[in-house]
Amino acid sequence: MLSQRLLHLGVLPAGRRFRTGLSHLEHTQRFRHRQLMRQVAASPAGQEQGIGKDWSWERFAERLPVTGYEDWRARVDQGRRDGVNPLIASPTARYQPTSGSTSAIKWIPYSRAFLGELDGAIGPWLADLYHRYPKLRHGRHYWSLSWMPTALRESLGEELNDDLALMSWGKRLIAGATQSVPSTVALARSSDDSLFATLAYLVADRRLSLLSVWSPTFGIGLLEGLAKWREELAGVLNQGDWGMRRAAMAQSGCPRCPRAAALLRAWDGELTADFFRVLWPALALVSAWDTAASEPWARRLQSLLPQAEFQGKGLWATEGVVTFPCQGRYPLAYRSHVYEFQDPDDGAIYAPWELEAGQRVMPLLSTGSGLLRYRLNDLVEVTEHWRTVPCLRFLGRRGTVDLVGEKMTGEAVNDAFAQAPLPPGVTPVGVVACEDAGEGKPGYLALLEGAPQAPVAALAEHLEQAFGGHFHYRLARNLHQLAPLRCVVLADMRERYLGHCRDQGMIEGNIKIEALRAWPGTAPAFLAPAPSPVSA
User: What stretch of H or E contains 300?
Assistant: First the structure.
């Protein structure tokens, strides 16, 4: 495809610059810091904080504290109301909504400077993709949309974004011609309508060569959606008309593909690798998160699409990029933002060139959005150095859950599950901590997907003992502050988990299944204890 060749040629210089600079990490980071200081110092927020355009790296680290979103919320909210970004002297294209581990929506300013920083990581990533997976050059691609809750769609209007919007204008125009799914599907009336339209375009594309999603559970959900809507999709694709969804899809033309319609009508709806091989014979690569709690779901997605190779994502957040895959490694995106790293135990802060292999740290980002020394609560481990640049592996979310002082972490949950006696056919979804886990007492629930009658007593005992290895958890149990850990197994637990997150206002497609999450209030009804059998 001509558009693929043009995009490949367009990203080659970025790949060369990234590789050339691998020996000059400190020089590159200090240069990016000087650029950022000039832009921040010229902004209202920078002037208010007394930030100087000539601040050195060391003075910046000494004068400014580590921050979280709440430190910026008031200024960001004012900027949204005024239509400007007070945090940095760079025109702001939009405010991108995201969500963390709770329902609170965060709005990240996407300035021209920040978009340039993201493009600085996307360029070398794409260059490496085309080099490692040459079949991508001969087909079309699907890059996941930035899915929004239905309730936000009317207020955002045409500001709903697809992931191509992270590229520079030139690359975006070329890349748009390579896409299986037009970005206009994001403007559908509801999330369901957008999802349906996405599936229609994907099923109609026999030349699909790349499927890139963030969460593997979202990728599995796409495949399950094909089964759920296969009759309706077959009718739409056979006629080339949205039918009863016509009004909801006013912004997008409808694909027509009788071949795909016939495949769907002949399909029994069972998710099998054989069916997806026939549907997408040119699929060369699937890209999704594959670390920490996403690992079992990544394996499942890979097993359903074995005709394609699989590549794990690096560490990206709406607030910025930390790593991306390149030549089999996950190097720091050192040409994008200004990076520091904080030790989660003693709080010590390191420049990226000070990191050593084996260290476990949390990234601090200072970016062209104007967020400075912004801590991502992600724990990463330094696996190696690529010349001077550290390569990092995502270990999970670092934030603690503390219902009654037990101070549990996702890392502890991952360690417990790593040695757990899982029954056959049972997959861990995660652990949730509820203020009322049943019978009016707070506690932890291990969520599992599988047959509801699966024997999990041994698993519950193992997890309880593993958690009890942590002093504060054991003390809370001894003092009867926490209910015993309980395992809940449902055939559709993953979808129930994601549905609850969506109900709390979290962003579709970007919801990451986490090893440990706090769910305020009473546990949802689907997690209620099974009633005890009544004796005759």
Answer: helix 295-304
Instruction: Give the span between the Cα atoms of 389 and 29, in whole angstroms.
Output: 11
SS3 percent helix, strand, coil of the chain, rounded to 5, is: 45, 20, 35
Cα distances (Å, whole numbers) of residue 11 to 150, 230, 275, 379, 485:
35, 38, 34, 30, 51
- From residue 169, alpha-carbon distances to 116, 165, 166, 196, 270 in Å are 10, 8, 9, 28, 41
| Tokens at 103, concatenated | 């329902």
Per the listing, tokens 């779901």 go with: 297
Are 511 and 215 within 8 A, CB to CB?
yes
3-state class (DSSP) for residue 460: helix
Q: How far apart are CA 321 and CA 15, in angstroms?
A: 16
Report the SS3 class of residue 135.
Answer: helix
- Report the C-alpha gap between 383 and 381 in whole angstroms: 6
User: Of the ranges 246-260, 289-303, 319-333, 488-502, which is most confident?
Assistant: 319-333
- CB count in 10 Å sphere of residue 428: 25
Distances (CA, A) of 198 to 143, 202, 244, 495: 11, 6, 16, 19
Can you tell me which residue has the tokens 């260059």? Answer: 127
* Farthest CA pair distance, the chain: 82
What's the token pair of residue 524? 């949802």
Instruction: For residues 49 and 366, give the distance between their C-alpha atoms in angstroms, rounded to a whole number.
Output: 15
Rounded to an integer, what distance in angstroms lies between the CA atom of residue 355 and that of residue 462?
Answer: 36
- Rounded to a whole number of angstroms, the CA Rg of the chain reads 24
Query: What does the alpha-carbon distance between residue 46 and residue 21 come to, in Å, rounded to a whole number?
Result: 30
Nearest alpha-carbon partner for 468 in 480, 458, 456, 478: 478
d(CA 497, CA 526): 10
Question: 74 to each of 65, 80, 86, 121, how far by Cα in Å?
Answer: 17, 10, 11, 29
271 contact partners, CB below 8 Å, separation of at least 6? 223, 224, 227, 304
DSSP string, 502-522: HHTTPPTTTPPP-SEEEEEEE
- Length of the chain counted residue by residue: 536
Of 414, 203, 223, 198, give the one whose Cα is nearest residue 301: 223
pLDDT in tens, 11-66: 899 999 999 999 999 999 999 999 999 999 999 999 999 999 999 999 999 999 99
Which residues on adjacent β-strands are paired with residue 441?
none
Summarised one tens digit per residue, pLDDT across range 63-113 is: 999 999 999 999 999 999 998 899 999 999 888 877 654 445 789 999 999
- For 350-366, what is the mean pLDDT? 97
Q: Give, in order, the Cα–Cα distances in Å from 31 to each of 90, 336, 349, 367.
A: 18, 11, 20, 13
Predicted confidence (pLDDT) at residue 158 exceeds the cutoff of 50: no
pTM, to two decimals: 0.82
